[in-house]
Amino acid sequence: MLRRRVRAGFGGLVAAGAGLGLGELAAALVGGTSPVVGVGTQLIDLAPGPAKDWAVKNLGTADKPILVGGVLFAVAIFALLAGTVGASRPRLAVVLTIGLGVLAILAAATGRTLATNPLTRLLPGVVTLIVATVGIVLILRALGPPPSPRAVGSAGPDETSTDDARPSNPLRPGRTDSEPVPTAGGSASDVPGFDRRRFLVTALSIGAAGAAGLAVSRLVPGGVDEATRAAVKVPAPGSPAQALPAGVSGDVAGVSRFFTPNKSFYRVDTLLTVPKVDPRNWELRIHGMVDRELRLNLADLLDRHLIERDITLTCVSNEVGGPYVGNARWIGVPIAEILREAGVQDGADAVRSTSVDGLTIGTPLTALTDGRDAMFAVAMNGEPLPFAHGFPVRMVVPGLYGYVSATKWIVDFEVTRFADFSAYWTDRGWSVEAPIKTASRIDVPKGFATIKAGPAVAAGVAWAQRRGISKVEVQVDDGPWRPAKLAAEDSIDTWRQWTFRWNATPGNHKLTVRATDAEGHLQTADRAAPRPNGSSGLHNTLVMVE
Ligand SMILES: Nc1nc2c(c(=O)[nH]1)N[C@H]1C(S)=C(S)[C@@H](COP(=O)(O)O)O[C@H]1N2
Ligand SMILES: [Mo]
């Protein structure tokens, strides 16, 4: 029986794997969501807030591959168990396998997905269900009938008859079929009727079909390619960024570069696969409480008055001293101009923007009309937006955390009232309004670095978008707060570098940093977790001086 169970467990794995492999292929061919990604996305959306906070904090951008790996691992364990069960109770195995497929279909039916039409949405899950079910049936048949009449005789809920039940069907073995129960560790000769060759050929063919499906799915291009993105020509902005003042960057090695390169720019979103929107089909709908509804395609946007601005983005999930902040030079269309053209009606106080995957973000209307450089951005650091950062168009609003302002892959922009909707993250316990808090970070030395005694340098960045930074101070151990040297300011919407020179004496020391914004408010030392509206507290670093 043991060998039989091992074989059946292997069969379960093969069937589920083939289902997923061909499900991937179906998803790639119709442009739907892969079942694994669909289930993973649902897990992201259903995950309780603290679990998500933990993942962002401890896994960072690795959270996505880890989630996909976790889903695959769970499916593998489940399939292995289902198969093993199938050694004695084939029908239960089939029911379990169908359950797995139904789960994939449900995730696709109810979840956020890039696929809008129900057929493309559901097809991959349906393919997975059918392939995995047919697979397990064929494999268990090839395994021969269960050896123990007692095992199959124990009528469970899975013993009810179904249409596919035929006497010859090993999934519905006759109860008169009384073979002796093989003794434990039984003879090498399997139960009568087991044909090893047939079993292997069946299992391996099904496995090969799944592997081929997976391999081919990877060759099908998903969305547009890099060349199409790079071919988008962003005209020279009518309002270029002001000349960068000399000295925005200090000369200390290891400090954040003033402009964060696109490749290393932090990325926060809820997607397991980056949408590759076709710029030729992209359209933005502006509607809701407006006098005139507008529909703009990319050419319409690029034909408009473009502004170029340096703006530092910050994620609300950033911990004190954390990495989710980056500065870039953006080109885009002022949102205020579009709103003026559409004609905002009285009573509106918010905009609900939606991305191509159905995620929603709520932004206060005032932040879009009060004169700051809120824009529909089309370029980032001199190139069309990278796919991961919202190609072809995203919102950028100085001074607000990304989750209430920075909608990537935007397709819908509805002028409305906060009272009339709730957005993705506010449904998950984050504040409705979230201006960026004044913060400062030590980049060098790194925590627990060992440095030489004598003249030493510390450096980092500080930000208070919309207000600007007027002072940064550093404290060594419990000593007095001493001013750091500020690099030149680009704009009040960008971060500012600072440098601090001190005389390091042997022993362990703690460096702590704090900033004051240009309105004179000192950064608070009160510790707060990112939820609900951004972390606060002072960043410190321990160094060992020899
Ligand atoms: N469509 C979409 N836009 C989104 C998000 C998202 O999950 N989906 N995340 C937001 C959050 S929380 C932040 S901090 C910024 C991050 O932008 P980046 O990934 O380009 O750095 O995008 C915002 N825009
Ligand atoms: Mo964020």
From TrEMBL:
It holds the Pfam family Oxidored_molyb. SUPFAM superfamilies: E set domains, Oxidoreductase molybdopterin-binding domain. The chain crosses the membrane at residues 66-85, 92-110, 122-140. Gene3D superfamilies: 2.60.40.650, Oxidoreductase, molybdopterin-binding domain (3.90.420.10). The keyword Plastid does not apply. The keyword Transmembrane helix applies. Keywords: Membrane, Transmembrane, Transmembrane helix. Residues 147-190, 520-546 are annotated as: Disordered. GO terms for molecular function: heme binding; molybdopterin cofactor binding; sulfite oxidase activity. GO terms for biological process: sulfur compound metabolic process. InterPro entries: Ig_E-set (IPR014756), OxRdtase_Mopterin-bd_dom (IPR000572), OxRdtase_Mopterin-bd_sf (IPR036374). Residues 273-419 form the Oxidoreductase molybdopterin-binding domain. This is DMSO/TMAO reductase YedYZ molybdopterin-dependent catalytic subunit.
